[in-house]
Design goal:
The protein is of the alpha/beta class. The chain folds into 3 domains: 160 residues, Ubiquitin-like (UB roll), CATH 3.10.20; 158 residues, Rossmann fold, CATH 3.40.50.11540; 70 residues, no CATH class. The protein has 14 helices and 17 strands. A 6-stranded mixed β-sheet has the order 1-14-13-17-15-16. Strands 2-8-7-4 form a 4-stranded antiparallel β-sheet, with no helix packed on it. Strand 10, helix 5 and strand 11 form a beta-alpha-beta unit. Helix 1 packs across helix 4 and helix 4 packs across helix 7. The longest helix is centred in the last third of the chain and has 20 residues. It is globular and about 65 Å long.
């Protein structure tokens, strides 16, 4: 019997419109805008200035703290300016503008397709190369990878779990990556195992991707300690705590990190980026992005350079449909509406979803009918309707007591609510407020 996590969960329509589409390399734009904050933690600090000439892979900005990540140029050309630019959150934040001239790469990058399996580096040397390459979690959370690979004192990794679930509706970038780069991913997994000194890894894949499961299982027999685990389709199985529960049947306690359960969880795209960084000396400056939507002419998976405007991806997928109501960065459950199509692709850009006007209009909110569907759907075992009320009435103490900070913002509660109540919106506001209160209390 297929495994899945044991608390809550929903089954939204999958709408994998771009499944089976091969990865297309998107043309380089005339100018890229590369934000300095493409990760959780402190923004990177620019090490270039206006007028500097850069190549593909040149270091543009160094990590600005322990929880931070280096940023590299995705193009060759001249730094036009360092100025504020709109990012996916809708705020203007520091970014490096580069005018593209040719496509000259740093000489240290191995651009051949030759598979490199052997690695004689130590655990520390692997982690150092990952940090130097600016790799972050590519599932959307963008947590700097090198930090995850260095567990805090008192914690020891027992297993590496690779998140190849891709439970978010519409998105297929991970699926396409497994179909085309399976062997490189498996080498990346072995590198992650070596980095944290474990001899077991499990790649969890939902069983709506039978071709990817078959391909990965066929190749994994040559990689000792690596297991491919088909999982039952259930959202949000891609959440770290939900995936740990599904794979090793351990619950991560409230407020605790996944490492407390002995697990290091990495996205399948991150595993591929680790392979490229360690074995090919290639920094993270491009990624696969799904561009999709029911009204879109050609839903696709593109290999995109960081800093490319979203509008370039939409044009390559057939252009913006006339009845577009919203452009979503990410998927329909956890993605956020973009205020402009000129927002650049960043390390956390897993997808671009175009919703029609009919799909993007909210239904009128009605009174809560106390059906508890949101409670049953919550994968964290929370009471969403109570937490929404706490936010509305600014009862922050009660919100904290009921673990509002444990919310993973998956949107399962809002999806199931028959009264169309904006549960996630209110809980997200309350969570931010409570986390601010906790930080102030600790300081």
């Amino acid at each position: 019997m297929l495994r899945t996590f044991r608390i809550g969960g929903i089954h939204p329509p999958e709408n994998k419109l771009s499944a089976g589409k091969k990865i297309e390399v998107l043309a380089t734009p005339k100018q890229v805008i590369i934000p300095l904050g493409q990760h959780i933690g402190a923004p990177a600090v620019a090490v270039v200035k206006k007028g500097d000439l850069v190549k593909v892979g040149t270091l543009l900005a160094k990590a600005g703290g322990f929880v931070s990540a280096n940023i590299h140029s995705s193009v060759s050309g001249k730094v036009n300016k360092i100025d504020n630019a709109l990012d996916a959150s809708g705020y203007r934040r520091p970014a490096i503008y580069i005018d593209v001239e040719g496509d000259e790469w740093e000489a240290s990058i191995d651009r051949t397709d030759t598979l490199v399996k052997e690695c004689n580096l130590s655990s520390k040397e692997i982690i150092d190369k990952i940090a130097a390459a600016g790799i972050v979690g590519l599932g959307g959370a963008t947590f700097p990878t090198q930090v995850k690979l260095m567990p805090p004192p008192g914690n020891k990794a027992e297993i590496v779990i690779i998140n190849a679930v891709e439970c978010e509706p519409y998105l297929t970038s991970d699926h396409s990556l497994m179909m085309e780069k399976a062997e490189q991913i498996l080498v990346g997994v072995t590198l992650l195992m070596k980095a944290v000194n474990v001899n077991r890894a499990v790649i969890g894949i939902e069983n709506n991707k039978p071709d990817a499961i078959a391909k990965m299982q066929q190749l994994a027999v040559n990689y000792p300690g690596v297991e491919i685990m088909p999982l039952k389709v259930q959202y949000p199985q891609g959440g770290e705590k939900q995936l740990i529960d599904a794979v090793i049947r351990r619950q991560v306690k409230s407020g605790a990190l996944p490492i407390s359960a002995g697990a290091v969880v990495q996205n399948v795209g991150t595993a591929y980026a680790v392979y490229e960084a360690v074995q090919k000396n290639k920094p993270l400056f491009e990624r696969v992005v799904t561009v999709t939507g029911k009204a879109l002419a050609n839903p696709s998976n593109f290999l995109v350079r960081m800093g490319t405007p979203i509008s370039c991806l939409i044009d390559a997928a057939g252009g913006l449909p006339e009845n577009t109501g919203k452009i979503i960065g990410g998927g329909p459950m956890m993605g956020k509406a973009l205020i402009s199509a000129e927002v650049p692709v960043c390390k956390g850009s897993s997808g671009v979803l175009l919703l029609t006007k009919e799909e993007s209009v909210r239904k009128p909110m009605r009174d809560c009918i106390r059906c508890a569907k949101c409670v049953g759907a919550c994968p964290m075992g929370l009471n969403p309707t109570l937490l929404m009320s706490c936010t509305e009435f600014k009862n922050w103490e009660l919100a904290e007591e009921n673990h509002i900070t444990d919310c993973i913002e998956c949107g399962s509660c809002s999806f199931t609510c028959p009264a169309n109540r904006p549960l996630l919106d209110q809980i997200r506001l309350g969570k931010g407020k409570v986390m601010g209160i906790i930080r102030a209390r600790k300081s």
